[in-house]
Amino acid sequence: MSSKHTTVTTHIPVKVKKKLSIQPKIKAAVYGTIVPLGLVIAWEYLSKTGVFPQHLLPAPTTILDTIAGMFQDGTLWGHLGITLYRLIFGFLIGVAAAVLLGAAAGYFKTVESLIDPLIQAFRSIPSLAWVPLFILWMGIGESSKIVLIAVGVFFPVYLNIVSGIQGVDRKLIEVGKVYNFNSWQLIRKIILPASLPSFLVGIRSGLGLGWMFVVAAELMGASKGIGYLLVYGQNSYSPELIISSIVLFAILGKLSDSLLKRLEVKTLHWQDTFTKKA
């Protein structure tokens, strides 16, 4: 007589606690607001308690009221529009010139020997030193302002392009020659991708300098623009208008840099850097 044994396996469900995961972008944005928010709160408190004199450093709420007032009466849009117009055109002209000259100087040693010493000498000239010369040549119209901004944008973009091209690993070039790449194929498939990170960094640096040169440009007899508001606030002894203009510059600069940073991340998605998780 044989007996059959039946084994019954019972699965007991185990609840696994899920960790609350925060997206890295949201986490970075939260961290990025901690220090500015803390400074604004401290600034507001010190201004309201009289530690910071109101006639020298108005409270943040006063600054916001000034910006909101310009927004409501419509004057803000005119100043923003003309400043962005000058910046965009100057930025595009400066980048285009830097790409042409930087690519030639980076790829051809003879071109670098011809033009790089002169460009390096011009790079050390302060921005305000160009103002009287451009006024003499082009007057106080928009052309002199746009050219001044283009000059500011040109140098960091040029330097990064030359550095990026000359920094391409020679082994990559040799691999291209093994595959019988011609000059155009070497540029398109090897040199351009390898130098692209440096070029994009130069673009961001050029945009930052472009915002700085906007202020110098709008000192050249401008009747509109955020830089003009700085001068008008100084002449009318309005610290709230001066600081409001500075805040607007900071906000616009941050937004434009964030756009370029986003473009940089998408363009260089193929890079395997230590900041990217596997």
From TrEMBL:
GO terms for biological process: alkanesulfonate transmembrane transport; cellular response to sulfur starvation. The keyword Zinc does not apply. The chain crosses the membrane at residues 28-46, 84-108, 120-140, 146-169, 190-217, 237-256. PROSITE patterns: ABC_TM1. It is a multi-pass membrane protein. Keywords: Cell membrane, Membrane, Transmembrane, Transmembrane helix, Transport. It holds the Pfam family BPD_transp_1. Gene3D superfamilies: MetI-like (1.10.3720.10). One of its GO terms (cellular component) is plasma membrane. SUPFAM superfamilies: MetI-like. CDD domains: TM_PBP2 (cd06261). It is found in: Cell membrane. Residues 76-260 form the ABC transmembrane type-1 domain. Its main location: membrane. Belongs to the binding-protein-dependent transport system permease family. PANTHER family: ABC TRANSPORTER PERMEASE PROTEIN (PTHR30151:SF39), ALKANE SULFONATE ABC TRANSPORTER-RELATED, MEMBRANE SUBUNIT (PTHR30151). This is Binding-protein-dependent transporter inner membrane component. It comes from Bacillus methanolicus (strain MGA3 / ATCC 53907).
